Amino acid sequence: MHQYRTHTCAELRADHVGQTIKLSGWISRKRDHGGVVFIDLRDTYGVTQCVVDEGSPLLAEIEKCRVESVITISGDVRQRPGETQNKNMPTGDIEVYIDALEIQGAAEVIPFQVAEDDGAGEEIRLKYRYLDLRREKMQKNIRLRNDVIFAMREKMHAQGFQEFQTPILTASSPEGARDYLVPSRLHPGKFYALPQAPQQFKQMLMVSGFDKYFQIAPCFRDEDGRADRLAEFYQLDMEMSFVSQDDVFNTMQPVIENIFETFGDFTGTKHKVEWLPHLRFEDAMLKYGSDKPDLRNPLEIVDVTEVFARDDVEFKAFKGTIEKGGVVRAIRAPKVGDQPRRFFDKLNSWAQGEGAPGLGYVKMENGEGAGPIAKFIPAAAQEELKKIAGLEDGDAIFFVCNKEMAAAKFAGRARDAICDALPEGHEAEREKGVYKFCWIIDFPMYERDEFTGEVDFSHNPFSMPQGGMDDLLNKDPEKVYAYQYDAVCNGFELCSGAIRNHKAEIMEKAFEIAGYDKSVLEDKFGGMLNAFQYGAPPHGGCAFGIDRIVMLLADEPNLREVYAFVMNGQYEDQMMSAPSDITKEQLKDLHIKLDMPKQKVEKEQAA
């Protein structure tokens, strides 16, 4: 017989009755029923009920074993009496009567319950992550992550892609987020950077002639933490040569559809997968107030600036903003006129919590507007408003007024808040049981800082301008569009990509417009720039965030629920005590002296 087990804790069935077997695992639960002790023995595969019978010499030994101790048992498989069978367990028809027991690893008193959710907070869960990972839900989530990555690899290989690994220690480059820097011992005063993405390397693979590349790529960005963003994350990174934008879409959609169709019932509810028509960035911002809209929400935003700009409309709160170049955006909420006053008050309070004065609205009753703002809008203006927004009796319309981009973004958040406030079963409630995908296209190449007036890249600096050099030379930078695209699903950006700028002269001009001197381009991106001078193919690609995909499939609110080992929101690894202090000798080897913030020094001295 095997030293540790003949079966896993998920295998035994009624046809094993009468066999002598051996199991190993963790004590999930222990119950003493008048001298008969029942143990739920758990491994990563499942749970088996084991019994130490009354009068057994093992009773004293099992008494010493706390829950979460690791044991090996051997004994006979017996049929459970009919009334005690558990149809909710795959092994619920049988139990194992223990005749030998060995403690492999005794457990101390555990800091929180593993067998059930006892409401332990994130801090203690992350400190004892190895215990947290024993929980059934976490085991399922981590296995889901494994299965998703395996399926991705299969689909990419089936389409002729080759998997290559790119460097982790590389050069720092201005790509939007802060780099994590690594000091060089051999080159005093110089630093490597951890890659924000394998961007330049995958493009140079195309220059090298490999044609189709992919990688499950680790990426690092020193940004503030939030529920859908971590310092270290993984993406399905890909690049192809001799392709158009549509070629990238047609290649990746089947891969992602397969993932969501295969694992879309992970939470027990089967989800549909829908790809909606492409949305231009400007249309997405106008209609949904976001470049990653949740298209399960049927509410749409309309521009009603012309209504409030009319001479006969005297609403000064909006009028003054419009005169300074502002806009008014509105969201129609159908058939909410019968909602109690607290429905509207709650939305007003939400807006105030977001830093706005409130969320003004008009209700349509008997063909006329009612509510706080209605008295400032005469009948003719109300007719125009009804026409633009498609208003009918029983509807309400909510307003946002600000500079264009600020108004768009706030209206986008208001659109979701209004949808969330609707009662269950309302005609405009958020659709359930569906993953709604869409490609957002035609991103502007540049944006202008409203305070400094300076032009910078709005997205990926390596994207090809849609009109090539001609657009860069002859158009206002804010009117230049890039072959840049994102894939979004249910309010999350899952993918970003572009057809790349593969011509050195166009790249030099593109960076010049963004204020980068040629010397900066050569210093920061010299490797790629030089490569383009030796024959570069047209190429493009994208990267899908694996963590967000798994988070959506598992219906988890936070990325930390789909990683095995992860930091907290302050980017501290409480289990491994990172980041940590290093010794003076290590600093000396790296030729580094610390210049600590005054507050930290004072705090340490006080301690």
So what's the overall shape? globular
| Low-pLDDT segments | none
Quaternary state of this entry equals single chain
Amino- and carboxy-terminal Cα gap: 58 Å
Number of strands: 23
Number of helices: 18
The portion of residues assigned to helices is: 25-40%
SS-based structural class?
alpha+beta
What is the residue-averaged pLDDT? 93
User: What about the largest sheet?
Assistant: 9 strands, mixed
Strand content: 15-25%
Radius of gyration from the alpha-carbon trace, in angstroms: 30 Å
Question: Could you give a quick summary of the protein structure above?
Answer:
By secondary structure, the chain is α+β, with helices and mostly antiparallel strands. The chain is built from 18 helices and 23 strands. The longest helix has 23 residues, at 136-158.
Structure description:
The protein has 607 residues and is an alpha+beta fold. Helix content is 30%, strand content 24%. The strands form five sheets. Strands 6, 9, 10, 11, 12, 18, 21, 22 and 23 form a nine-stranded mixed sheet that branches. A five-stranded mixed β-barrel has the order 1-2-3-5-4. It has a five-stranded antiparallel sheet with strand order 13-14-17-15-16. The chain is globular, with a radius of gyration of 30 Å. The mean pLDDT is 93.
